[in-house]
Write a structure and sequence with these properties.
Protein name: GNAT family N-acetyltransferase
CATH superfamily of the largest domain: Hotdog Thioesterase
Number of strands: 13
CATH class of the largest domain: Alpha Beta
Radius of gyration: 21 Å
Helix content: 25-40%
Order of helices and strands: EHEEEHEHEEHHEEHEEEE
Strand order of the largest sheet: 1-2-3-4-5-7-6
Organism: Psychrosphaera saromensis
Pfam families: Acetyltransf_1, YiiD_C
GO molecular function: N-acetyltransferase activity
Number of domains: 2
Number of helices: 6
InterPro entries: Acyl_CoA_acyltransferase, GNAT_dom, HotDog_dom_sf, NAT_camello-type, YiiD_C
Length: 303
């Protein structure tokens, strides 16, 4: 399980900058110190840690002016790449930019990475200076006003959200919506105010509902990917609450945290899928949910 957090302690900052140097500067034979610039104290920093607490990815947002923010120093260590970590760091920094009322985010991407950023809503606006005169870069931009971060198969995500709103009307009152689906990670979000209790935090039952729907939604999308039909029901669940939600309710599930498969459906039997879901308050983990879902085979209609 990966988490996106802000570095806090001196040790965390050391690991944060070490990843920057190892991934971005050491391969260019640049000295230590070249991984920093004059904007460090005026920027938002995020890093990804694994389940052992090891820093495996880093990124930074600097607000250039009232309209524009720039993301720089995006780096993920090699053995943890292709797991969606860069995507979740980008999304976290873009969320901060939105909170700061920034209208667009820019970044300078290596030419080999432009397709990755284009898939996340960025477009090339021109050439950028080469890094240390060695690596060609392109400047890219993403408008933020009204942007929904639905990456893969947006129609599936819209259909899923409509199913929730039509069949479970309370999801509309809770403001639950699909926020992102990358093909490996599924994230939902909720509006906080309608569900705040007397302590100014989110009701535990609302957190449970958000996590349940996120797990259900990931199973639904997984079935769409594999062209499988069936009816999904929650058979059992367990949730552990660590901290209250006071700011931004987020619920994230990853394909890598799914156990089980759909093979029993081929024999007209039930399939059992276990999904682990993490609930966050912005970037702070607040609850862990494990849901056991049963997929019932579709009844065949006789002619």
């Amino acid at each position: 399980m990966y988490q996106v957090v802000a570095p806090q302690t001196e040790e965390e900052w050391e690991h944060y900058y070490e990843i920057r140097w190892q991934v971005l500067r050491a391969p260019l034979q640049e000295p230590r110190g070249s991984e920093k610039d004059e904007y460090e104290q005026h920027a938002w920093h995020r890093m990804v840690i694994d389940d052992q607490g090891k820093v495996v990815g880093v990124a930074r947002l600097h607000i250039v002016n009232t309209d524009e923010g720039q993301i720089r120093y995006m780096a993920v260590i090699e053995q943890h790449r292709r797991k969606g970590l860069a995507t979740i760091m980008l999304e976290s920094l873009e969320a901060i930019a939105r909170q700061e009322s920034v209208k667009r985010v820019i970044l300078n991407a290596r030419k080999s990475a432009t397709n990755f950023y284009e898939n996340l809503g960025y477009h090339v606006t021109g050439e950028a200076p080469e890094i240390f005169g060695q690596i060609p870069h392109m400047q890219m931009c993403k408008p933020l006003e009204g942007v929904e971060v639905i990456i893969r198969n947006p129609q599936w995500c819209l259909d899923l959200q409509n199913i929730w709103h039509q069949q479970i009307p309370i999801t509309q009152l809770m403001g639950i919506r699909v926020f992102q689906y990358t093909g490996s990670t599924f994230e939902t979000r909720a509006a906080l105010n309608p569900k705040m209790n007397l302590q100014g935090t989110m009701f535990a039952g609302s957190i449970y509902s958000l996590a349940t729907l996120t797990g259900w939604g990931l199973v639904h999308l997984m079935m769409k990917e594999q062209k499988i039909e069936g009816d999904i029901v929650l058979a059992d669940a367990d949730i552990h609450y660590h901290k209250p939600v006071t700011e931004l309710p987020r619920s994230i599930a990853n394909f890598e945290n799914i156990e089980g498969d759909f093979k029993p459906l081929e024999n007209n039997q039930k399939a059992r899928i276990t999904v682990k879901v993490e609930v966050l308050d912005d970037v702070t983990p607040v609850a862990e949910f494990i849901g056991q879902y049963v997929v019932m085979p579709k009844e065949k209609i006789e002619d």
